[in-house]
Amino acid sequence: xxxxxxxxxxxxAASATLLSACAGENASEGEAxxxxxxxxxxxxxxxxxxxxxxxxxxxxxxxxEGESPDFAVLETQATMINANAQKVIDHFPxxxxxxxxxxxxxxxxxxxxxxxxxxxxQALIEASEGMVAAAQSGDAATVQAQVGExxxxxxxxHDNFRVDDD
Amino acid sequence: MSESAKQAPSPKRTVDVWDLPVRLCHWAFAxxxxxxxxxxxxxxxxxxKRLGLLLLGLLLFRIVWGVVGSPxxxxxxxVRGPAAxxxxxxxxxxxxxGHNPLGAVSVVVLLxxxxxxxxxxxxxxxPFDGATGPLNPLVGVLTADMLTDxxxxxxxxxVVLIGLHLAAIAYYAAIKRNNLIGPMIGGKRTVESDxxxxxxxxxxxVLLSMAIAAGATAWIAVGAPPxx
Lengths: 166, 228
Hints:
The structure holds 2 protein chains of 2 kinds.
Chain A (H helix, E strand, L loop, with lengths): L1 H28 L11 H25 L5 H17 L21 H4 L1 H24 L2 H22 L5
Chain B lengths: L1 H5 L5 E5 L3 H22 L3 H24 L6 H4 L3 H10 L9 H23 L17 H34 L6 H6 L1 E5 L10 H19 L7
Antiparallel strand pairs in B: 1-2
Helix pairs in contact in B: 2-3, 3-6, 3-9, 6-7
């Protein structure tokens, strides 16, 4: 009974060791034509940039869920979104997508349809400018309406240029 | 082991231990938890959500089955207090089939941990940023963000618990010479002749558990109306 049980466990352990050894080998050798190239640093930069936009957008929506939103906070967050939004397009050099084998959700459509990507980027910048203006207006309903616009621009890009959710 | 040494060699026989629903749930969990991890790592959110709902349904089924299932499936038959757990640790033997008092803790903790993890996932995500759990609209954006973080972090706890579970199985196999995997596959084990086997489950109980689990899961999947 012991033997029959311990054998599969040992086999699993041994295969796991072999697998990890193989993975290590691939990474260090970096064979020509393989996708073991080092991950471009820009992927991390753009993910952080977009995550900051996401967090700021959540902060804005969080404010609107409260009794009375703090418009100073709204303006700070909106300004940050706008500043980060400007940078987005420069964060996607060719060859840094999913297809290149990197840990990213960036689809090849970004480089196949550069004009559409640029238009989506422009929509984000405009929506974020609109959010700064809405925050400055001091009117919660205006900000709420702009949440829809900004959210649409986020989604517009995610739907076309990021890996499908469903 | 001490019992068999004391008594005259008693004839061994094979009895039922685990009913089919218990075994199916168990192996489905063993497949689904790694699948949930894989789909999350690979951004397969559609599958992550579908399999998550399947996991929720199976968890609910197992919980109802823990009330109406065969004797060894029932929580009331194996969940014991600290005194029984200590006594088991001292004697090292259970004297009956089914979960021992310590294994019972493992069952309850693993089921609860999976239930917590799946529940967090129901609220996770952001509608403007990819996939969301079916109950995401019920909470505010900041709450959802916090629950999403917890959902990511709590997986580590699941991994630790699974590690303990596997270590215990290996310990029983290597040290106690007790094969726990075979009975979880075939449902039967060899016992001393005076040990009573498990009684069969009832089909009505299977149907009832399935109906409750499927109904509750479907209700949650559509956003828990009228709450949603």
